[in-house]
Design goal:
Chain lengths: 264, 283, 197
């Protein structure tokens, strides 16, 4: 499986050297604004006037655009076709195809949904392209997220490639024993069973020993842990984070106020 | 002074009828290197786990008799305290990688992070230990991208950096190729020569004969022999219990039948002893 | 305090090392299945496995983190669906506590319960975030129902109630078969019954 197993691209940039929590806060604030602020063109503005320039500042602009197209194009194509054709309650017909009619309400709805999802995915992409997952996790652990949580996430990132290799080995072995893994549905389902069993089993037999190994390294000792890598942070960034959080909260408040007042 | 003291120790794994260890009496002195030998299933790992506190904390089960390790009763202390005094390294190098670190250097620091050691001191201790275990050149590699022998030295370093008083090794080379084993043995030898208390389950009799102070032979959970390598490895009882004896002893036994070994001369367990013996016959 | 004890019971060191393996199982098998173009996802076998052998809280955490990992590594579109994965783990865990993972026909009941919970949680997310349509084949059913005059939520809910059970029953059965291979795990009574070890 040639899928690259992390989005992170190690480069030197202003965005890379930001504290991970700052980037995480930025992502969440932009998503909240995109979803809760009225304004049909707000999300797409955020994407092209905030996220895209930031990605170029972070020297990952090309990858940023490529990855978002790869991740979102199929979804958006599907979304536009289905929504413009089937949007319930569409009245203003733009044009008709066979028995279907494309309504402007449907197109607007698809546009709104798509641009919001675009902001959601792109905000995270900016974070992920410029932040090593373990830096994010150790920064969160330092701020009080339980160590076991960051342990789980970082070790999963290491186990997945190993397990992919293991799965490939099992599949090769199956093929060399003449098991048909292509063709019709029944064949494909049948090829799955002898894969799942061995894969799960071989991965879980080692669990006991690995638990002993991390106990032997005092993982469960009830003292406050320290961290080898110190992740840079600054008071200016802290202020920026508080500012972003405040904007997000105000946005939600504004939205609640809007919907309450429209109901009266 | 005894740092490990087991008195009439008997242990059953959960739901198991037969004891995995039975009436074990053992004292290990500070700075001593004790080897444990025995056939598969003899109880070597079980004894290692008992000394390092994983029995009863991790495996539960029933433990009778008394245990005293490094001045504490591991059955009463919590596991976190036990592992600070007793380091455990076991067979499979791959399974000893914490999995949460991306470089060898961070991997070795993992234990110190858990102990809450100050980052400055942490770096000093990791730097020192990677030098002593000769893995300084691997420091920025991923722990998963190493050979078995390298991984096992990383595992050793990761435990040694925590400065345990006692080092327990459960067949640390049994899954390594000859070169990997050699590298690991070299590190263990240096630790032993520096006066660290070591308990090591191992099959490579010739190596143990050379470096161990005493050898404990186990069979079906019981001690069948305890003494110097010379006493234990030349014993004719060991093969009956499925325990290998030294190659040099085997050669000398055969030589005795062929009149190439002096009648009544003690059986050799090391290369030097056997050469000495043959010198007397062949001047 | 009963709640905290119930949560604590699920998390020992064994669980802690088992969860990453389970998440990796979700991701790797999920990817293979999507390559095989089967009409199911099978991306929560690991979650159900942990839920059954370690407990509902551990299962919920496994599901949640699976989606976060999937989002971190493969597609950030996975993030907003984490409540579905959480509920799958949680419900499967309580099914196991209630003894539904002791025989294969009971596992089918567990699969149905899990799928109902999953459909109930995923439908609102699908409606509010994606306008009811996602890039999967089942959206054609939704479109058909919409066309025949249902409102959006009803259409999405009915679609999910229709397609989820196949996937979740298959998932639970596969997790059940895999669990039988494992010798020692934290809650053997969930799988083996209380009489045997
Ligand atoms: N977790 C366990 N639960 C129940 N019985 C166990 C467990 N681990 C080991 N045993 C049993 O206890 C006995 C001693 O096993 P132990 O692993 O200590 O032997 P060993 O000398 O280390 O063998 P080997 O050379 O194979 O490593 C064996 O009969 C084994 O089957
Ligand atoms: Mg053993």
């Amino acid at each position: 499986m040639p899928e690259r197993m992390s989005f992170f691209i190690p480069r030197e940039s202003r965005i890379h050297s930001l504290n991970p929590l700052t980037k995480l806060t930025l992502a969440f604030s932009l998503i909240i604004i995109a979803f809760f602020c009225p304004g049909l063109f707000l999300p797409i503005t955020i994407n092209f006037l905030v996220l895209v320039p930031l990605s170029f500042l972070g020297k990952v602009g090309k990858e940023f655009i490529q990855t978002s197209i790869r991740l979102l194009l199929p979804l958006f194509a599907f979304l536009f076709v289905m929504q413009s054709l089937f949007y319930p309650g569409g009245k203003t017909e733009l044009f008709g195809i066979w028995i279907f009619s494309v309504t402007s309400e449907g197109v607007v709805f698809a546009f709104r949904t798509a641009t919001r999802i675009l902001v959601m995915v792109s905000s995270f992409l900016l974070l992920l392209l410029t932040t090593h997952p373990s830096a994010l996790m150790s920064d969160l652990a330092r701020r009080g997220v339980p160590a076991s949580l960051s342990f789980i996430i970082t070790s999963t990132l290491q186990i997945i490639p190993q397990m992919q290799a293991k799965a490939a080995t099992i599949q090769d072995a199956q093929r060399s024993r003449g098991l048909d893994t292509g063709g019709n549905l029944i064949n494909r389902i049948r090829s799955l069973l002898p894969l799942v069993g061995p894969l799960v089993f071989s991965s879980l037999v080692d669990v006991e020993e690995r638990a002993i190994a991390i106990e032997a390294r005092a993982f469960t000792l009830p003292v406050e842990k320290t961290s080898l890598v110190e992740i840079p942070d600054s008071p200016a960034e802290a202020i920026l984070r508080w500012f972003l959080a405040a904007v997000a909260i105000i946005t939600i408040g504004y939205r609640i106020w809007l919907s309450l007042s429209s109901r009266i | 002074m005894a740092v490990i003291e087991l008195k009439n120790l008997t242990y059953h794994y959960p739901l198991s009828e037969t004891p995995a260890l039975q009436s074990i009496d053992l004292e290990v002195e500070e700075g001593e290197f004790l080897a444990i030998v025995g056939a598969n299933g003899a109880g070597k790992s079980t004894l290692c786990y008992t000394i390092s506190g994983f029995i009863p904390h991790f495996f539960k089960g029933e433990l009778a008799g008394s245990v005293n390790v490094a001045g504490m009763d591991p059955t009463k202390a919590n596991l976190g305290t036990c592992v600070q005094k007793v380091g455990l390294v076991f067979q499979n190098p791959f399974n000893q990688i914490s999995g949460s670190k991306f470089t060898v250097y961070e991997e070795i620091a993992f234990g110190l992070e858990n102990l809450g050691v100050d980052p400055q001191e942490m770096r000093e201790r990791v730097d020192e230990i990677i030098r002593r275990t000769r893995i300084a050149d691997l420091r920025d590699r991923s722990p998963y991208a190493l050979s078995g022998g390298q991984q096992q030295r990383v595992a050793l370093a990761s435990i040694l950096v925590m400065k345990p008083q006692i080092l327990v090794l459960d067949e640390p080379t049994s899954q390594l190729d000859p070169i990997g084993s050699q590298e690991v043995f070299q590190v263990i030898k240096e630790m032993a020569l520096q006066g660290m208390t070591i308990v090591m389950a191992e099959h490579k009799v010739e190596w143990l004969a050379e470096y161990a102070d005493r050898v404990l032979a186990l069979s079906a959970g019981q001690i069948i022999k305890l003494g110097t390598p010379q006493e234990v490895f030349s014993s004719s009882e060991l093969p009956k219990h499925g325990v290998g004896i030294s190659r040099y002893t085997q050669v000398a036994r055969r030589a005795l039948q062929e009149n190439l070994w002096l009648e009544g001369r003690r059986m050799p367990v090391t290369l030097d002893e056997s050469i000495e013996g043959f010198r007397e016959i062949i001047p | 305090m009963k709640l905290i004890d119930s949560i604590k019971r699920d998390f020992n060191t064994m669980t802690l090392v088992m969860i990453p393996v389970a998440i990796a199982i979700n991701v790797v098998i999920g990817q293979i299945v999507s390559l095989l173009k089967l009409p199911v996802y099978l991306d929560s076998i690991g979650t159900v496995l942990v839920a059954a052998i370690c407990g509902p809280w551990a299962g919920a955490l496994t599901g949640t983190l699976s989606n976060i990992i999937w989002g971190l590594l493969i597609d950030p579109n996975a993030f907003p669906w984490f409540p579905v994965a959480l509920v799958i783990g949680f419900v499967a865990g309580w099914c196991a506590v209630g003894g539904l993972f002791r025989a294969w026909w009971k596992v089918i009941i567990a699969g149905i319960l899990v799928s109902l919970a999953a459909a109930a949680i995923s439908s609102p997310i699908q409606v509010y975030l994606y306008g009811g349509i996602t890039a999967s084949g089942s959206s054609f059913i939704t479109a058909f129902l919409l066309q025949s005059g249902r409102d959006l939520m009803t259409a999405v809910l009915s679609t999910n109630f229709l397609v989820e059970p196949i996937d979740k029953i298959a998932t639970c059965l596969l997790a059940f078969v895999s669990a039988r291979y494992l010798a020692r795990f934290p809650r053997p009574e969930n799988i083996m019954g209380s009489s045997s070890r």
